[in-house]
Specification:
Distance between the termini: 38 Å
Shape: globular
Number of strands: 25
CATH topology of the largest domain: TIM Barrel
Helix content: 25-40%
Low-confidence stretches: 1-5
Mean pLDDT: 97
Bound molecules: alpha-D-galactopyranose
Oligomer: single chain
Number of domains: 3
CATH class of the largest domain: Alpha Beta
CATH architecture of the largest domain: Alpha-Beta Barrel
Radius of gyration: 26 Å
Structural class: alpha/beta
């Protein structure tokens, strides 16, 4: 079960009980002369900003040399913000160590899998397991907690920044020692580790913990032990969490009343941290999200926001960063179209965010991120971006009653599992083309196309409450998870799973006797061999859809298993492509190929209708409108690029413009 945060929200300096949505940005005053600061707070008030994240990258400014502290500038900024009723989410400033520290202690620098040092010059160049780094960082955290713990502007502590964003995988000697310790706790004895890692293979048997290393680069065209690779991913996520806990303990001891958070990165392909296992460490969940252009960009935004909402246990969370317009780190950085800034922001609110913040307040004139958009762009306040920001500030003030209301659970869910993500994409598998998150997102798009709300929920969460559960590429299925899935279907639940699911246990050992071993009886099928497809191969199905990436040679082994769709072409022609076993009121369906959103939509329509799960939208709006529900509020998003008549939901004559959002109270009142 996931550990939900105990949920202590921001400590607002004034009127703490007044419902409000937080609105603001990362604020980096150290990039600007003091004269600009007053102008900043004036413009913040114009925009309706009520909170900023401060000092994220300020270590070198706060501690210019070992033993030398300079808080005067930060005192002034804290007071200035407070004087203008702007609260502060104060960072612990540990994200990027200063040059004096790396020069004196190069042993804190991370090492890549080839043994190369990651040099300073950018940011986050520190080993999560370095005791030297930790000692210096915690001294800084202590100094900040002592100095600002009582400051009236302080609304929350912001630990580090996007932990693991640039240093998640470190192969250094410090990491090796910590990995050995982690393995010792996990396995107890070297024999047990040998069994779990199947080290009889390739003569890898260990006789002492100290022989074990991170999976550093080995012989060309060879593969490090797969369980070692998977455990290293688990360890790396846990090592960062351990670091998070170390900072948090300093803060909790010094300032027990101040809530603590850190910004997650639930977005795109960013996968090194199992955030579901982190949520319980914090007082509230925070996330950063950037839209990555592409045909499913908007669906991905909603998918990520939805997953964060469920990691947060349905309770309000904090959108720490997103962008007002272009970013700087894509190959080509497109500006947002009019309306997108508000729509993207409100997508997060619809999925539970009670704070909408941006990177960053004022666009930098120098440095690596000078072409990254901000609330105040290079053009200044007389700009479309700043006008859109100000308008958003007004909208968020009007939406104050939404604050604190819980997400309304859907009837269907998509399971999201970091273990399966990490393991299914490892090397030396039937295909290296498989992408876990892409398959999950395709199912989400299919739900959106059908106008059926679906929650994206961690596999460790309480998903039994859902009537229909889709578990794409659930590759790792330990015995207890197999039992849960059995019990779920036995109790009337409807499970849908896909190719490469139920294949291995927690050690990445294959469940024997035919695939998908852990789910074979539940699904009533047996597969002797996988049928991955080459890049230029496809397989036609008899429902008119086309499969790519994967097929399976399926035998039906239970009379209760029905074939819903068959292969028409290719190696599996005539064989089952989609099956469904309904031993009682529940069912377990299997989809053996990659259909993409277009192919999944009609199939999901059948599976959802058999499960009795229907759309809450009028037929004419399904697929065109995305619906999200928080308490009594219904958020409608236009998924198309044309105006939509939404009078069936919102009353006569109501039209939802492209990229527009409408918030209704139950019953349809805007
Ligand atoms: C991350 C970081 C920010 C900034 C943005 C740019 O989210 O936390 O400091 O670099 O990316 O998109």
């Amino acid at each position: 079960m996931p550990h939900h945060p105990r949920h202590r929200w921001l400590r607002w300096p004034s009127e703490p009980d007044r419902p409000r949505l937080a609105f603001g940005a990362d604020y980096n005053p150290e990039q600007w002369p003091r004269e600009v600061w007053r102008d900043d707070v004036r413009a913040m008030k114009t925009a309706g900003v009520n909170i900023v994240s401060l000092a994220i990258f300020s270590w070198a400014r706060i501690q210019p040399r070992e033993g030398v502290w300079d808080f005067a500038w930060l005192d002034e900024v804290m007071d200035l913000l407070h004087g203008n009723e702007i609260a502060v989410d104060l960072a612990t400033a540990t994200a990027s160590p200063p040059p004096w520290l790396t020069a004196a202690h190069p042993e804190i620098l991370p090492v890549d899998r080839e043994g190369h040092t990651r040099w300073p010059g950018a940011r986050q160049h520190w080993r999560p397991t370095s005791p030297v780094f930790r000692a210096h960082a915690l001294a800084l955290v202590t100094a900040l907690a002592e100095r600002y713990g009582e400051h009236p502007a302080l609304a929350a502590w912001h630990i580090n920044n996007e932990l693991g964003c640039h240093n998640a995988y470190d192969y250094s000697d410090d990491a090796a020692r910590a990995f050995q310790e982690w393995l010792r706790r996990r396995y107890g004895t070297v024999d047990e580790l040998n069994r779990a890692w199947a080290t009889t293979f390739w003569s890898q048997r260990y006789s002492d913990w100290e022989q074990i290393l991170p999976p550093r680069l080995s012989a060309p065209s060879s593969y490090p032990n797969p369980t070692q690779q998977l455990d290293f991913k688990r360890f790396s996520s846990d090592a960062l969490r351990d670091y998070l806990r170390a900072e948090r303990e300093v803060l909790r001891a010094a300032t027990p009343d101040v809530p603590v958070t850190t910004n997650f990165l639930v977005m795109g392909d960013t996968g090194p941290v199992d955030y579901a296992a982190w949520a319980g460490e914090l007082d509230f969940v925070a996330n950063d999200h950037y839209v990555i252009p592409g045909p499913q960009a908007r669906d991905e935004l909603s998918f990520s926001a939805n997953l964060v909402g469920n990691i947060a246990g349905g309770l309000p969370w904090y959108l720490m960063e997103h962008s007002t317009s272009a970013v700087n780190w894509q190959p080509v950085n497109k500006a947002k179209a009019p309306g997108e800034l508000a729509r993207d922001s409100l997508t997060h609110v619809a999925h539970g965010a009670d704070a909408v913040c941006f990177f960053q307040w004022r666009q930098s004139a120098g440095g690596a991120e000078k072409y990254h958009s901000a609330m105040v762009p290079h053009a200044g306040e007389d700009s479309a971006v700043f006008r859109a920001v100000t308008e958003l500030g007004t909208t968020l003030r009007e939406l104050a009653p939404v604050a604190g209301t819980p997400r309304e659970p859907a009837r269907a869910a998509i399971l999201f599992d970091w273990d399966s993500w990490w393991a299914s994409e490892q090397d030396s598998h039937p295909s290296d083309r498989l992408r876990y998150r892409r398959e999950a997102l395709d199912w989400y798009s299919a739900f959106l196309e059908l106008g059926i709300r679906a929650d994206v929920v961690p596999a460790s969460g309480a998903w039994e409450r859902y009537e229909l559960v889709v578990a794409p590429i659930l590759y790792v299925v330990p015995r207890p998870l197999a039992d849960r899935l059995d019990a779920y279907v036995g109790a009337g639940g409807h499970l849908v799973t896909t190719y490469f699911s139920g294949i291995v246990d927690e050690h990445e050992h294959v469940w024997l006797g035919g695939y998908p071993g852990a789910l074979r009886d539940l699904l009533g099928i047996r597969i002797e061999e996988f049928g991955p497809l080459l890049d230029d191969e496809t397989a036609e199905l008899d429902d008119g859809s086309t499969g790519a990436l994967w097929t399976d040679r399926i035998d039906i082994v239970d009379p209760a298993t029905e074939v819903l769709v068959r292969y028409k072409t290719g190696e599996q022609a005539g064989r089952p492509a989609v099956t469904r076993r309904a031993p009682g009121p529940g069912s377990a369906a299997y989809v053996s190929t990659r259909l993409g959103p277009a192919g999944l939509t009609p199939l999901l329509a059948t599976l959802a209708s058999r499960a009795g799960v229907t759309s809450e939208l009028p037929a004419a709006l399904r697929g065109h409108v995305e619906l999200a529900v928080r308490g009594p509020h219904r958020f409608l998003f236009n998924r198309t690029d044309r105006p939509l008549d939404v009078s069936a939901l919102a009353g006569p004559g109501r039209v939802l413009a492209p990229r527009a959002v409408m918030v209704l109270l139950h019953g349809g009142t805007p």
